[in-house]
Write a structure and sequence with these properties.
The protein has 381 residues and is an alpha/beta fold. The chain folds into two domains: 2-172 and 354-367, Glycogen Phosphorylase B (Rossmann fold); 186-352, 3-Layer(aba) Sandwich (Rossmann fold). 39% of the residues lie in helices and 17% in strands. The chain has helices at residues 14-28, 66-87, 97-106, 130-139, 151-160, 209-219, 237-246, 262-268, 283-290, 304-307, 322-333, 336-346, 349-352, 355-367; strands at residues 2-7, 32-37, 53-56, 91-94, 114-118, 145-148, 166-168, 195-200, 226-231, 253-257, 271-274, 295-299, 314-318. Helix 3 (97-106) crosses helix 4.
């Protein structure tokens, strides 16, 4: 299989991790694979198998101007089309909405090329503005198929785009996780005898880590052997640090920043908390559970309800209900036996979302994606 994957960058992020993991897996089984990004290679966070060809368009200008945006998008379409003509892949896959639009335009009219877009957010929670929404609605009809992470996303795409075929394929989990720079030893901020409540993600508004800090602040005095660690970097750092100082939790709440060895932190932790207002399909939640962490999460749109089996390997609480979120965290922080029971169930995500299983779903889709080919076989369940 000659496969090209187009994504904005390989910086630290969920969709970027998914692309890197899939690319490395397919390269390991002998596929000819190229990853094309808008951003330069110097911004890469994730490591690729040496067999993966890496191409950068180096067109990452982000000036917030409508005319500049139109010109920028046109340049990316032309540059990607040149790469497609030069490499002649059998299949081209894009990740995230703007990349999907660019691929649809760049590949239009190229004979023998099957194209797939993939949504990594729940679109109504991340509106793009009327221009991009209009382009998405039109462009998705030019793709051979669009992949959604959840049934909720697939339903939205059915109602709001012209996509000809929509398939649900969740993200795969990689376990154990590879480690790379920047590496930070958990013992630098967490004593071995402490229980760790862990959160992981970009420090941005939609992750709502303020709710996680707030819940821990109300529980800290009742659970003196517990600390909270939130891994990640982002625009909300200053606000979170101020919240921690105001609560007097500087010795109990830690924000180490972005790390390239999250597996070591998952291994050190005892409980995972997800406080997001919305998600697409949260990779960090699956990763934490693969390492045997029971989880407490808001039942937000979308993803947590597809991952956590309530009362089996974690607890789901109504989205935005801070009181119930804190109560669920406190329940597990105070019950070692229940945490251990949930931990045993949590590790089953290694099989439920294994790379071979999820990759097989993609491969079945790639096998006969174009309208002129025979109908596709049923995807593996």
């Amino acid at each position: 299989m000659r496969l090209l994957i187009y994504i904005h960058s390989l910086e630290n992020g969920g969709a970027e991790r998914v692309v890197a993991n899939l690319a490395n897996y397919w390269a390991s089984i002998g596929w000819a694979l190229t990853i094309v990004t808008v951003a330069p290679r110097t911004s890469d966070f994730y490591r690729l198998d040496p067999a993966v060809e890496r191409v950068s368009l180096d067109l990452a200008d982000t000036r917030p101007n409508l005319l500049a945006g139109i010109v920028r998008t046109a340049r990316r379409v032309r540059a990607l089309r040149r790469v497609l003509l030069a490499l002649r892949p059998e299949v081209a896959l894009s990740a995230m909405h703007t990349a999907n639009v660019v691929l649809a335009a760049a590949a239009w009219g190229l004979p023998g090329l099957c194209t797939f877009g993939s949504e990594h957010n729940f679109p109504p929670k991340a509106p793009m503005g009327i221009l991009w929404e209009t382009m998405r609605r039109q462009a998705y009809g030019r793709l051979s198929a669009v992949v959604a992470l959840t049934q909720e996303c697939a339903h939205w795409l059915t109602l709001h785009t012209g996509a000809r075929k929509i398939v649900v394929i969740p993200n795969a989990v990689t376990w154990p996780l590879p480690a790379h720079a920047p590496r930070l030893d958990p013992r630098r901020c967490c004593a071995p005898d402490r229980h760790i409540l862990l959160g992981v993600g970009r420090l941005s508004a939609e992750k709502n880590f303020a709710a996680l800090v707030g819940a821990f602040g109300l529980l800290a005095s009742r659970h003196p052997h517990w600390d909270l660690v939130i891994l990640g970097e982002g625009p909300e750092r200053a606000a979170l640090e101020a919240q921690v100082r105001a609560a007097g939790l500087e010795r109990r709440v830690f924000l180490p920043g972005r790390v390239g060895n999250p597996g070591e932190w998952y291994s050190q932790a005892a409980l995972y908390g997800m406080s997001s207002d919305f998600e697409g399909f949260p990779n960090t939640l699956v990763e934490a559970m693969a390492y045997g962490l029971p989880a407490v999460s808001f039942d937000c749109d979308t993803g947590p309800r597809d991952i956590i089996r309530h009362g089996v390997d974690g607890l789901l609480v109504p989205a935005g209900d801070a009181a119930l979120f804190g109560a669920a965290l406190g329940r597990l922080m105070g019950d070692d036996a229940l945490r251990h029971t949930f931990a045993a169930g949590a590790t089953q995500v290694r099989e439920r979302f294994s790379m071979p299983k999820i990759a097989a779903m993609w491969e079945a889709l790639f096998a006969c994606p174009c309208p002129e080919r025979k109908p596709c076989p049923a995807l593996p369940s």
